[in-house]
Amino acid sequence: MHPAPSVIIFTTLSGLGFGLLFWLGIGLPPVTGWVAFVFFAIAFALAAGGLMVSTFHLGHPERALKAFTQWRSSWLSREGICAVAALATMGLYAIGAVFLGATWRPVGIIGAVLSLGTVFTTSMIYAQLRSVPRWNSWLTPALFLSLGLSGGALLAGQTAIAAPLLAVAATVQLAAWQKGDTALQRSGSTMASATGLGGIGEVRAFEPPHTGTNYLLREFVHVVGRRHSRRLRVIAFALAFVVPLLLLFLPFSHALAGLAALAHLAGVACSRWLFFAEAEHVVGLYYGKRQPAPGAQPIS
Amino acid sequence: MTTLPDKTDRKMGLVIDLDTCVGCHACVISCKGWNTENYGAPLSDQDPYGSDPSGTFLNRVHSYEVQPEQGAAQLIHFPKSCLHCDDAPCVTVCPTGASYKRVEDGIVLVNESDCIGCGLCAWACPYGAREMDAAEGVMKKCTLCVDRIYNENLPEEDRVPACVRTCPAGARHFGDLGDPDSDVSRLSAERGGMDLMPEQGTKPVNKYLPPRPKDRIEDQIDVLAPLLEPIAADTGGFIGWLDKALSRLPGGTI
Amino acid sequence: MQPVIDTSPKVSDEVRKTTCYMCACRCGINVHMKDGKVAYIEGNRDHPVNKGVLCAKGSAGIMQVNAPSRLRAPLKRVGPRGSGEFEEISWDEAISTAVGWLNELHETAPHKLAFFTGRDQSQSFTSFWAQNFGTPNYAAHGGFCSVNMAAAGIYTMGGAFWEFGQPDWDHTKLFMLFGVAEDHDSNPIKMGIGKIKARGARVIGVNPIRTGYNAVADDWVGITPGTDGLFILSMIHVLMKAGRIDLDYLGRYTNAPVLVDADTGLLLRDADDKPLVIDRASGKPAPFDRPGVSPDLSATHEVDGVTHRPVFHHMAERYLSEDYAPEAVAERCGIPAPRIRAIAAELARVAFDEAFEIEREWTDFRGETHKTMTGRPVSFHAMRGISAHANGFQTCRALHILQIILGTVEVPGGFRFKPPYPKPVEAHPTPHSGRRPGRPLNGPHLGFPRGPEDLQVDDAGKPNRIDKAFSWENPMSVHGLMHMVISNARAGDPYHIDTLFLYMANMSWNSSMNSSGVMEMLTARNDDGGYVIPRIIYSDAYSSEMVAYADLILPDTTYLERHDCISLLDRPICEADAAADAIRWPVIEPDRDVRGFQSVLIELANRMSLPGFTDADGTPKWTDYANYIVNHERRPGIGPLAGFRGTGDKVGRGEVNPEQLNRYIENGGFFVEHIPEAAQYYKPWNTAYQDWAVGLGLFESPQPYLFQLYSEPMRRFQRAAEGHGDRQPPEHLRDRIRTHLDPLPFWSDTDQTGNAGFTVTALTQRPMAMYHSWGSQNAWLRQLHGRNPLYVPTKLMREHGLSDGDWARVTSPHGEITVPVMEMAALNENTVWTWNAIGKRKGAWALDEEAPEATQGFLLNHLIHELLPPKGDGLRWANSDPVTGQAAWFDLKVRIEKADAPPDESQPVFAPIDSPVGTGPKELRWKVGK
Ligand SMILES: Nc1nc2c(c(=O)[nH]1)N[C@H]1C(S)=C(S)[C@@H](COP(=O)(O)OP(=O)(O)OC[C@H]3O[C@@H](n4cnc5c(=O)[nH]c(N)nc54)[C@H](O)[C@@H]3O)O[C@H]1N2
Ligand SMILES: Nc1nc2c(c(=O)[nH]1)N[C@H]1C(S)=C(S)[C@@H](COP(=O)(O)OP(=O)(O)OC[C@H]3O[C@@H](n4cnc5c(=O)[nH]c(N)nc54)[C@H](O)[C@@H]3O)O[C@H]1N2
Ligand code: SF4
Ligand code: SF4
Ligand code: SF4
Ligand code: SF4
Ligand code: SF4
Ligand SMILES: [Mo]
């Protein structure tokens, strides 16, 4: 898949932002006043900023409000509603904490749940897609949630919580990669099933329907090369998990904590890029781009 | 209205005959022509005379080579447009309700004035049946020519999709696949009409008729008696052959 | 809530019905207009050709009439030839320039004008113009296209495949297709294949490449290119040996029973010149057509101790030979012997065991009345795959022999002619080249030679025509040799010309063999610095590659902006059971300073006061082409259009009707006259058909004839080569004529001189969605085929270590190209191919110079030469069929190897040409309605 950069930025930033909001909502750390202001500013910048960025790739951002209407069926709609609710609730909570020095616990808890819910709904947008077998798994919400929670904890300065959560997220990430690599194969979708011609013999794409490019090829058919992706996985894993964990075990300093958070952010962005770039949409089968001939080099 | 209707009154769709499609792309272009001029925004083209031309099409014809275990490889032309799935994931994912499945005939449509161009429906479609129009920023897809099939400004016989009307080989059939007695349902039943990617659970309405078995002539035809038995076993010289030929044949009275 | 949508929007303000012109198929179209603009084009359901369907090109017509590549005004060359530097001029200047060049030639040396046209549909008109100009040098593109198919058909059975006949789609049960990717009758063939497959009838495709029609064929015969003749003759062998042939049909309708003079090899004739058969009743010779005669296939005739045997004996003698046994030809053809037998057996089974009767009484030319018509539901079609080889004429003849011995021509279920065919050789003119300055040529340029006496050579045997048509090099070149014109004019062989006038043919690019050589020829200069071909006038509608090589451009309209006439005198739109013709008319007005070319020709003729176009006092007869279409009469009462003559009620023959064009427009742009039921089959022999055809004006008297299994005109040429008569071939051609003008079909390998080391055949195919070079200017179509890989069979891919996307160097004895490759399994294992005419020259067609057509697309034409490699005899041997001069495009042999350093672009690359029209816009959002 070849999603707009805005989608990668959005999911990365807002995941972290809502993760941070979750911790703030349940009072970890229990901040008020100026300190609260800084924390909430970061959290809202990430969450709301990400949300804003996500409208960049829309064909008609001016109609974005319509996206709140289909909560009964659409995870994207649910995400929008959830995000707005989370932001509103946490906004209220933040006003209390920053300006009134008040911690309205019930509001905070509701906001925290909604924030987590937002991360979950985001993840479900992808997880629901059978057309992308790599995503179509419970590991997708697990990954988004664990990343959101651990990243949020890092940002919230909750080193004690962050460390085990990072470990969990790292495990989920490894599992997602490992399962993901065989997901297309396990999905049962093949050129044979896509064309219905498998009964006759081995199917191979011959002439494409158009020699030029099109939306489908640009959006779905691009896949990252295997060697390239191996390298990026190592980098993503190191930055998102290994480096922050190592830094967490060093004596605490704000600089180190900041560095850990930045490394994590970069790692998650990298992982998120891979999340999209490695995803094989089954439409690629029609273009013969999902079943490399034995011995053929992956396209990079 | 993004939830799918529990059921639709009819299931209008196409039956595409892979045994007769010659891959001429007529359906591709007539679709482009009709839908550029009609329903919704025109199907635009970017860099149409340049180095990287691309454009929006609602119907595309692929081709595949299939190598059977024995015998020559076969080539199959494969037209593909929206299958108007019963369980259309493209509809349920749509956040705005722009994508919907019509209750009366099952046609899956995009209401362009509601579409925000998020692209999610195209992600959800396993078949690549949706294309975002780069100029208009809205999602485009096969409308099953909803503005033709009921169009009272067209003569009755022309109330079929543009691609069906134009197909020179007659490889495209249009009708109600919800009615087991319709021509299309019968044709599909007779010829083993199949679903594409059934494992995706989309329950496509459109059916594909598989190619008939090929390259069987040597197995089917007994080349010896009586079809090609030589007239004169010993050849018997030319005159012998001629005499026998003349006496033996349909025109033997001459 | 589901949105409410308008399911009944207004479709258009008005529908204008005319004829498509994205190819020669000539389908009827409904042009939907909104606000005076073309909004949508669909097929016309009432039209006899397409019955409502339309191909991709036809549907994309809207992108053709609005293409940015359309020429805008007459152009005068200002840079060197080939640069594309032009200046727009007025029509006044353009016409006077042309008249200035041409008038002098007309008065003094008309042969110094060579006027050749591409695949236009007004050949009866352009030839009329050329004839009245007085030049012998006129032809259309048939010579490089498929003259083998046309000539073999007419010489054998008075009609050809091409678009002049069709299988009886309603009845046929076995359809066998040789060497067709698309063909002229494109929509009817698709409709026919669809129709018979829906019935479960069998389709057999004989083609080295399995795409398109061959992909849907039930059985694919991936034959070795160039060997179809052998395969066909082998089936004839098997069928004859088994006696599975239609002797009744052969006896009645063919020259199989006609006696061959044992001394001369000519047919025995009576005093009235009628070929003789032995009548079974009397046992005596009798003219073939005497009422009541029952021709005997086996009886011989002894005169003075010499035994004259019927044609059938000669055939049996040749084809029963074990040389034609399947086992003997299998390896050569690349078809296993059991397969050859199986196909032959299936042909016989369907022809004879599935024969059926139609209850329709008819009377034959001998006066015998038949209660029924016997159907033999086997039909064939073939085109350039067998004809564009140097052995193509004899191969096409062989195929006709095959269908004739099965008794499947002009019978229910078989192959049927479309009017004006059937039409025997005798009803066609002979060729003429007698030039008389200031006066018309002494007769029509093109025709069907009956023997050496009809050759167009001078007393020394030197060709009269610039293309050397009707010379000993290719005596039966009935369509001329357009592919030799530029080469011969450059060489001054047989003579130099002054003006080359071309119409609708992209000769500096895809329609020439040896394109780079042709570019050189067109720009070659004499010692004095002048061009060897001093003047070139060209009419195109678009900014093609050829435009850059002309001195004066006469820009044509597009097909929706002019009058055209698809005439019975030309290549009409008839069907097997109807005569039909059609028009085009300006459904929109040009928005540029362009004019219909035919009208321009009339203006030129009027300005030169050409005979035929002007009365004795110089008064023009016609003001423009529309005027000509209505008012011209070839013979009294017979004009370009057969419909609505007189006061609108006369068909075929009738007075001029000033309202004729309006009547055509009201009728949907065409006219159909159905053939009466009893006349629909057995046309060459059916009295009812013959009378109907005379009534319609197709000919002046009934012309029944026999199918010519044995071709007497060929024997006459062969006899001359054997030393008879006062016109004999020059020594260097004697053997060739003796061998190749064999009156009975035979197979020979094509000339392989110079091919050592080049073992792979390289072919092209027409893409169904592209028309030669000019599909690429169409924004929609070029997205489908914007580049063309070389398709290479799996075995050769492996052998050369190639994989998809690699580049290969492809070499022929003549040239080299470097191009991207793609693997294909459903392909003859020793054949490579690509789509025809996708490759474009930079700067042409209003495309960006970096267009994929120009950077990745390529032409095979750079590898093909119009001449064979030198044989060391100092002579120029054309790469053509020795009988007809048909260009042997598909004899090309190459070698391929992986290109170690893949180039950035397909090689060779040519300097860009200047575009006289700029390039197209960056985006299209085409919608004319609101
Ligand atoms: N869409 C479209 N239609 C067209 C045209 C076009 O450009 N585009 N051009 C028109 C013109 S001018 C013409 S002349 C006709 C030509 O129509 P076709 O005769 O169909 O011409 P080609 O595309 O050259 O196809 C030749 C076929 O012969 C096969 N072939 C080559 N060599 C051999 C052989 O030795 N044996 C056998 N059995 N097969 C062989 C090739 O594989 C190919 O399939 O099409 C007309 N129609
Ligand atoms: N390698 C290879 N080469 C081949 C063949 C092949 O099979 N293989 N096939 C050969 C055959 S059979 C043929 S027929 C030729 C065809 O080759 P061409 O006859 O050159 O065919 P086109 O490319 O259609 O070029 C016709 C020209 O007519 C112009 N034109 C289009 N419409 C109009 C109009 O309305 N008025 C005027 N005045 N001009 C117009 C176009 O712009 C174009 O420049 O190619 C031959 N070349
Ligand atoms: S128009 Fe018909 S034959 Fe042509 S590609 Fe489409 S479905 Fe196939
Ligand atoms: S084919 Fe794709 S776009 Fe059409 S209904 Fe099915 S899922 Fe939706
Ligand atoms: S692109 Fe339009 S139709 Fe598709 S999901 Fe988004 S809003 Fe709905
Ligand atoms: S039904 Fe209409 S919209 Fe759909 S593919 Fe056919 S022509 Fe296009
Ligand atoms: S076959 Fe296509 S291009 Fe040719 S005349 Fe018919 S519709 Fe036009
Ligand atoms: Mo041609």
- Number of helical segments with 4 or more residues of chain C: 26
Can you tell me the CATH class of the domain at 75-141 and 426-559 in chain C? Alpha Beta
Report on the biggest sheet of chain A.
none
> What's the total number of strands of chain C?
35
Helix content of chain C: 10-25%
How much is the average pLDDT of chain A?
A: 92
Structural class of chain C: alpha/beta
GO molecular function (chain C): 4 iron, 4 sulfur cluster binding; metal ion binding; molybdopterin cofactor binding; oxidoreductase activity
Subcellular location (chain C): Cell envelope
Pfam family, one (chain C): Molybdop_Fe4S4
Protein name (chain C): Anaerobic selenocysteine-containing dehydrogenase
Task: Describe the protein in words.
- The complex is a heterotrimer of chains A (about 300), B (about 250) and C (about 950).
- Chain A is mainly α and about 300 residues long.
- Chain A has helices at about 5-25, 35-55, 75-100, 105-125, 140-155, 160-180, 185, 190-195, 215-220, 225-250, 255-275, 285; one strand at about 200-205.
- Chain A has two domains: about 1-130, no CATH class; about 160-300, no CATH class.
- The model of chain A is unreliable at about 290-300 (pLDDT under 50).
- In chain B, the strands form five sheets. Chain B has a three-stranded mixed beta sheet with strand order 10-1-11. A two-stranded antiparallel ribbon of chain B has the order 2-3. Chain B has a two-stranded antiparallel ribbon with strand order 4-5.
- In chain B, a hairpin with a 6-residue loop joins strand 4 (about 60-65) and strand 5.
- Among the domains of chain C are: about 75-140 and about 425-560, Rossmann fold, CATH 3.40.50; about 710-745, no CATH class; about 760-900, Barwin-like endoglucanases (Beta Barrel), CATH 2.40.40.20.
- The longest helix of chain C has 18 residues, at about 90-110.
- The mean pLDDT of chain C is about 95.
- Chains in contact: A-B, A-C, B-C.
- At the A-C interface, loops of A face helix 24 of C.
- One iron/sulfur cluster binds near residues 31, 34, 59, 143 and 145 of chain B.
- Chain A: This is DMSO reductase anchor subunit.
- Chain A: Pfam families: DmsC.
- Chain A: Keywords: Membrane, Transmembrane, Transmembrane helix.
- Chain A: GO terms for molecular function: dimethyl sulfoxide reductase activity.
